[in-house]
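Hi F.,

I've been meaning to write this up properly since the lab meeting, where we talked about keeping a consistent format for the predictions we share between groups. The idea is simple: the sequence comes first, exactly as it goes in, then the structure tokens exactly as they come out, then a line or two of notes. No screenshots and no reformatting. I'm using this chain as the first example so we have something concrete to point to.
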Amino acid sequence: MMRPILLLAVLALPLSAMASSFAGSSAGSASGASSAGSSSSGDDKIVLDARDDAAAFVASDGAIRGARLEAALLHLREQSVAQQQASDMVLARTLLAR
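Output, unedited:
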């Protein structure tokens, strides 16, 4: 019963993050800045929001896996091939170092 709820939460977090990022960037920019800056701030938000979950994951030696950590792990693995090969623990420690 808990796994479907966790899966739903993991899937819903990136969608809500993208929606808020879209709303923030769709208003446009008077300075003429590109939208690439907006997307990187959204990326940072996903990662920063996962820091508490990452801390719990590292402290529990991987036993505690929060939904925000799961979303950040998926996000990081989409960013580079090197991160696709990294373990969850390595990525969680990387989140804490940011």
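Notes:
The chain has a mean pLDDT of 73.
Residues 24 and 30 are 13 Å apart (CA to CA).

If this format works for you, I'll send the rest the same way.

G.
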